[in-house]
Structures are given as C-alpha cells and as structure tokens.
Write a structure and sequence with these properties.
This protein has helices at 3-7, 35-50, 181-187, 195-199, and strands spanning 10-11, 17-21, 54-61, 70-74, 77-79, 84-93, 96-106, 147-150, 166-172, 203-207, 209-214, 222-233, 236-245, 250-262. It folds into two domains: 3-106, Porin; 129-262, Hotdog Thioesterase (Thiol Ester Dehydrase, Chain A), CATH 3.10.129.10. Strands 1, 2, 3, 4, 5, 6, 7, 8, 9, 10, 11, 12, 13 and 14 form a 14-stranded antiparallel β-sheet that branches. The N and C termini lie far apart (39 Å). The chain has 264 residues and is mostly beta strands. The protein is built from four helices and 14 strands.
C-alpha cells in the first residue's frame, strides 16, 4: 500500500484533476479533514500529474472539509521546466476552497551532498512508552490509524513542560507504506502536538499552514518527529518538525503556524 491508497486519493480521466473522499480515517476528532492528510493528498496529486518527486510544498489552510464530502484537487503546472516543475494544487469542496498548495518538483544529479542538522538522542521505538490516549481516541479517526511512542518526555498529553520547547514522538504508519513525500506530508502536521508540551498545559491547535521540505526519503518503519516550538504569542504558535528515519537519516523538515487551543 502506498500513501495515495492509504489516503483514498483517486485519479480522474483528466491528468490534472484528482479527488479525495473525506472519511473519518483521515479526519480529526473535530470531524474535519486532518491538515496533514490534505497536504499529503495534494503532494500525491502533484507528483502524479508532473511525474516528478517533490522538493518542497507549502499549504495554506483556508476552510474545513467534513465527511462525507468530496475534495476535488486541480493541479495546474505553471512552469514545466527541464529539471524542476513549478505547480499548484487547489483543493475545493464545491465552490469552497479548502487549501491551496504551491510546490516545486524535480531532481538533479550533483556531486555534492551533506547533512548538518542533529537528531536528538532518544531510545529506539520499542524502548519508548506508547503515547497516552488522545481525547476521543475511540472510533475511526486519523490518530487511530497511527502508532505513537513518546521519545522525549513531554508529548502534550500531560502537563510536563519542556525546558526548550522541544518534544519528540516516534510515529509509525501501517506496515508497507512507502515513506515518500506524500506520507511525510501527513506526518509534517505535528507542530500543534508540541504546543501543550512547550507550555506544560493541556493544549494543541489548528494549523494555518504547513511547509514541507524533502531531504532524503529512505525506507523506514518508524519516523521520529522532532518537534520544536519556537514561540507562542498573540494566541498563535510557530514551530517546526524534523522528520528522522530510524537509521538517523533526515527525511524532511516541516514548519507551521497554528492557532493555539487550550483545553485545561
């Protein structure tokens, strides 16, 4: 199974149009499409239309899509390019725009590479405790389809404040899913999960945006989400997520701003 099948994204006879049935399994407990799933579907549509791998994509979340609505995703390729395609994905339910994604896709052969970001020192997934139950864990929703383990002590599910706004989770999607850009787009939407940990309060948030930059996707069972909250002010939080493979490879980085929601 690949991420496209896991999300439920479907092609049409038009190579620039796709559709995504919104089901509880890709939605939040608030009964609307999980932002990471919207971005993941858009990435899959962009890659499918252009035939090129994602370099970066930025999503602006504009409205909500609730089950059982159908999201239509149109992919205009603005600049085909010899090596890099510049394209957009515009997702709508009827006439209501849900999210807009701008992206660049392509690959180049270059005799130069390196990786300088540092992964936190954490235990292996099997040695880390399962994440405490989410609110409304019962039933079929996005987090019921993921396995999570707490790699750094504070995970936002209990009032354990970090000293530096940093928390980390090991997350595993169902076995056999290729951890390519679309799957990494789903897992990039975890900055809100670090808000409670940073504050030491029961909190989270609603994403306003998500920008993902693909480094080097490699096969991995678990992905370490290294969540770093940079600042919380005026009711909003800003931060990023580094995504690491089990072997220490940096897969991608994702940055977000989110509306802070406190539940205590």
């Amino acid at each position: 199974m690949d991420a496209r099948e896991w999300l439920g994204l479907e092609p049409t006879h038009n190579p620039n149009r796709w559709f995504l049935p919104v089901t509880p399994g890709i939605s939040t407990p608030g009964n609307f499409l999980f932002g990471g799933c919207g971005l993941g579907a858009a990435i899959s549509a962009l890659e499918g239309t252009t035939g090129r791998p994602l370099i970066w994509a930025t999503a602006q979340y504009l409205s909500y899509a609730q089950p059982p609505s159908i999201v239509d995703i149109d992919v205009p390729v603005v600049v085909p390019g010899n090596q890099v395609s510049q394209a957009r994905a515009i997702a709508k339910v009827g006439d209501t725009e849900i999210l807009t994604v701008n992206a660049a896709l392509g690959a180049r052969q270059l005799d130069a590479e390196g990786e300088w970001s540092q992964r936190p020192a954490v235990l292996a997934p099997d040695e880390c405790p399962p994440r405490a139950n989410h609110r409304h864990m019962e039933g079929d929703w996005i987090m019921s389809r993921l396995e999570e383990r707490v790699a750094l002590p504070a995970d936002g599910s209990k009032p354990d404040a970090t000293t530096n706004g940093r928390s980390a989770l090991w997350v595993r999607m169902p076995a056999g899913i290729d951890m390519g850009p679309a799957a990494l787009g789903v897992l990039g939407d975890f900055v809100p999960g670090g808000v409670g940990a940073a504050l030491g309060r029961n909190g989270g948030g609603n994403s306003l945006d998500n920008t993902i930059r693909i480094a080097r996707p490699v096969p991995t069972d678990w992905v370490l989400l290294d969540i770093r909250i940079h600042a919380i002010a005026n009711g909003f939080a800003h931060g990023l997520v580094h995504q690491w493979a089990e072997d220490g490879t940096l897969l991608a980085t994702a940055s977000q701003s989110t509306i802070v929601r406190l539940r205590d």
